[in-house]
Design brief:
The structure is a single chain. Helix 5 links the parallel strand 2 and strand 3. It is built from 15 helices and twelve strands. By secondary structure, it is of the alpha/beta class. The longest helix is centred in the C-terminal third of the chain and has 20 residues. The strands form two sheets. The protein has a seven-stranded mixed beta sheet with strand order 1-7-6-5-4-2-3, with helices on both faces. It has a five-stranded mixed beta sheet with strand order 8-9-12-11-10. The structure holds pyridoxal-5'-phosphate. Pyridoxal-5'-phosphate binds next to helix 4.
Length: 400
């Protein structure tokens, strides 16, 4: 079956079944094809394959059955025609840019995107004559004002990291369409289990599969999903030549991750909402950022655009960096690491880690205060996560 044939099936069925065609061995679980190249029946078959006139596997830089199974499954989940898997999330961002842009082109991007994406645009693409204008994710009018004749790409992440600001995908998509600009959405935080950007008007979806698609913190990988014309031809064309390819083993890990994606995301969201409400009531906490709270500025938009509110919670403690570090250091269960999308709850102090390289003014503009803590809520018993955070938070109140 092709990705389109799966459209009639429910999302949970697609997550478990799409993309795998049983081989003659009759296996039930998807096999790992650990083979760098594939053989042809004859010299003519080889010639036809190299000419692109014959379907089938050639070389695992660009065709591998396990990687293809992952690509077809993710395409079926996102509702896209084509998917190209990549060696990392950043390789997915780079491959999209390399497939689309040339010297002189211009990008409009949300200032709330992943740190390495900011560096890629400002420090690396800039050397090739590609410039970027940074705008607010929550103000579509800024996107419209930033457009120039040479603008080719709109780049968005929603909800943002770590403040969980929610962008209006249909509103930004309307601006992109009006100006004939490709609109890419990094769907890492929501995954197709919570948000379907292609349905909402985006042209391309970027994934870091490293996060929730894996879900257990094992492998680095990524993917681009979109039209056959752009992703299936142009992004694939760049990948097959340049080679930031996903390994069959990592593809297999992500495939197995997709099978439990809906269940896991539901649990991440339920646990995160519980933690957010509990934090909101804690006297040491000045502010909680979580789209599921009624007080969140884009709560209604998030409720409309996403099926649930996600697993990331950020909160501000009174007392700046010293107090925030105390809360981080008082944990015994949580993992002090910047990764997210893991069964294990992780905790990080953005101002001194993920956003540590920004100048203080840039950090201030991005709203990353010294008292801010980000928690990527995992799948442990919620009471244990609360108790682990309470140790440091209660001490702050006691010490005041
Ligand atoms: C981690 C991340 C990336 C980059 O992915 P890698 O797999 O680490 O290369 C891109 N976007 C978002 C939102 C991320 O969280």
């Amino acid at each position: 079956m092709t990705a389109n044939d799966w459209a009639d099936f429910g999302p949970e069925t697609r997550a478990v079944r799409a993309g795998h065609e049983r081989t003659a061995e009759g296996e039930n679980c998807e096999p790992i094809f650990a083979s760098s190249s594939f053989c042809f029946g004859s010299a003519r078959d080889a010639a036809e394959s190299f000419a692109g006139n014959r379907a089938g596997n050639v070389y695992s830089r660009f065709t591998n059955p396990t990687v293809r199974t992952f690509q077809e499954r993710l395409a079926a989940l996102e509702g896209g025609e084509s998917c190209v898997a990549t060696a990392s999330g950043m390789a997915a961002v780079l491959s999209t840019c390399m497939a689309l842009l040339q010297a002189g082109d211009h990008i409009v991007a949300s200032y709330g995107v992943f740190g390495a994406t900011t560096t890629l645009f400002d420090n690396h693409l800039a050397r090739f004559g590609i410039t970027t204008t940074w705008v607010s994710p929550t103000d579509p009018a800024q996107w419209a004002r930033a457009v120039r004749p040479e603008t080719r790409l709109f780049y968005l992440e929603t909800p943002t990291n770590p403040l969980t600001e929610v962008a209006d995908i249909p509103a930004i998509a309307a601006v992109a369409r009006e100006h004939d600009v490709l609109f890419a959405v990094d769907n890492c935080f929501c995954t197709p289990a919570l948000q379907r950007p292609l349905k909402l008007g985006a042209d391309v979806i970027i994934h870091s599969a490293t996060k929730y698609l894996d879900g257990q913190g094992r492998c680095v990988g990524g993917a681009v999903v979109g039209s056959h014309e752009f992703v299936g031809e142009k992004v694939f064309g760049f990948l097959r030549t340049a080679g930031p390819t996903l390994s069959p083993f990592n593809a297999w890990v992500f495939l197995k991750g997709l099978e439990t994606l809906t269940l896991r995301m539901r649990a991440h969201c339920d646990n995160a909402l519980g933690i957010a409400r509990w934090l909101e009531a804690h006297p040491a906490v000045a502010r909680v950022h979580y789209p599921g709270l009624e007080a969140h500025p884009q709560h209604e938009l998030a409720a409309r655009q996403q099926s649930h509110f996600g697993g990331i919670v950020a909160f501000e403690v009174r007392g700046g960096r010293e107090a925030a570090w105390q809360v981080v250091d008082a944990t015994r269960l949580l993992s002090i690491t910047a990764n997210l999308g893991d069964a294990k709850t992780t905790i990080t102090h953005p101002a001194s880690t993920t956003h540590g390289r920004l100048a203080p003014e840039q950090r201030e503009r991005a709203g990353i205060g010294e008292g801010l803590i980000r928690v990527a809520v995992g799948l442990e018993s919620p009471a244990d996560v609360r108790a682990d955070l309470a140790r440091g938070l209660d001490a702050l109140v006691g010490g005041a």
